[in-house]
Amino acid sequence: TLVPPPAVYALALGMAWWLEGRWSLGFVPGGVGRVLGWGLIGLGLVGFAWALAAIWGHHTTVNPYKAASSLVTRGPFAHSRNPIYVSDWFVYLGVTLLLGTAWPLLLAPLVWLTMRYGVIAHEEAHLLAKFDDEYRDYLARVRRWL
């Protein structure tokens, strides 16, 4: 993994906040927007906790810089190969609403590209090398995102 995954999202949100201070693309989210923003953040945190519980239940690591000791295919991993990153997107969108600026949406393609090729590609290569056919079967059954 080239970049710590949470740093990708945090850097983009920080950059969006900085850009908003110079060139405003702001909007007022209103009451519904704030509720939706907090709801998305909550959904992301619940998804993250569910994924962590599945990982810890298999006695393996969530740290992308350490080798996985087992392939987790249950819990949220039965529905997405990257449930933590899906959860991160929910948080990212929730924070976008709370910030009230379109900048995070404009930076989202860069975040996606960085995650897909700078993080996920490396993780998938590791899992394929370590679990081979078991991981190939998992790839055939479960989508990357949702």
Structure, explained:
With 146 residues, the chain is mostly helical. It has helices spanning 5-22, 30-57, 83-99, 103-141. Helix 1 (5-22) packs antiparallel against helix 4. The longest helix has 39 residues, at 103-141. The chain is elongated, with a radius of gyration of 17 Å. It starts with a helix and ends in a 5-residue tail after the last helix. The mean pLDDT is 94.
Major sheet: size, sense and barrel closure?
A: none
- Separation of termini? 22 Å
Give the % helix.
Answer: 55-70%
Rg, Cα atoms, Å: 17 Å
**Helix run count:** 4
Q: Give the low-pLDDT segments.
A: none
- Count the E strands: 0
User: What sort of overall outline do the alpha carbons produce when their principal axes are compared?
Assistant: elongated
Average of per-residue pLDDT values:
94
The sequence of SSEs as H and E is: HHHH
Q: What are the main properties of this structure?
A:
146 residues, 4 helices, elongated, mainly alpha
Strand and helix map with partners:
Elements (H helix, E strand, L loop, with lengths): L4 H18 L7 H28 L25 H17 L3 H39 L5
Helix pairs in contact: 1-3, 1-4, 2-3, 3-4
In short:
The protein contains 4 helices and no strands. The protein is elongated and about 50 Å long.
